[in-house]
Amino acid sequence: MTKEHILITVKTYPTLSTKYGETVCTAGVRPDGTWVRIYPVPFRRLNDKEQYKKFDWVDVRLARNTSDIRPETFRPIDASDLIQIGHVDTNQQWRERRELILEAPKAKVYTRIDELIANAKSNTASLAVFKPTKVLAFIHEDDEREWRPERVQQMRDLSRQHELFEDAIVARVVCDHVLTDQSGRHQYARHTQLPIQL
Fold first, then answer.
1. Burial 12-36 (b: 16+ CB within 10 A, else e)
2. What is the CA radius of gyration of the chain?
3. What global pTM score does this model have?
4. Which three-class secondary structure state does DSSP give residue 96?
5. Within the chain, which residues score under 50 in pLDDT?
6. How many Cα atoms are found within 13 Å in the side-chain-facing hemisphere of 151?
């Protein structure tokens, strides 16, 4: 199986899984603008060459993740062969990022939330770019910095991966977004946890 070239655009806050230990869910776009979700990625277990940041290009061999029905979800065949090979910077007002995410041959930008929701319900799209007509509010609040000790111990006991939990955890903030779409009729609040590097 050949390696795929993926521009990482999303990295979630690490989660604790009884099956995989500590993992992150990562998403990105291929050079043609199609989306891919990569899960699970045992990020802290990757060595320095394998770790990546948002807007890094990575090469990785992927297989369809059959435990997730969403069409874009794949799993790394071998997380240790996930290699960071480049980075897309913000030069020229994010020109290269815009071209890859918004203007690539198969890129799609949604302006109506009802279309996006319909595609999610029909399981034809679960990752997308949504461009709101107007952002009405952005509200954030601090969240707990670290996981509950009993949850960490449970993960240690189940996964026997003690070394994964010795590093400090980044802080989190909880954000709500209130938006209107192109029709102007809809307002949506989205409750999101974002990692903040300390």
1. bbbebeeebbbbbbbbbbeeebebb
2. 18
3. 0.73
4. helix
5. 161-173, 193-198
6. 8
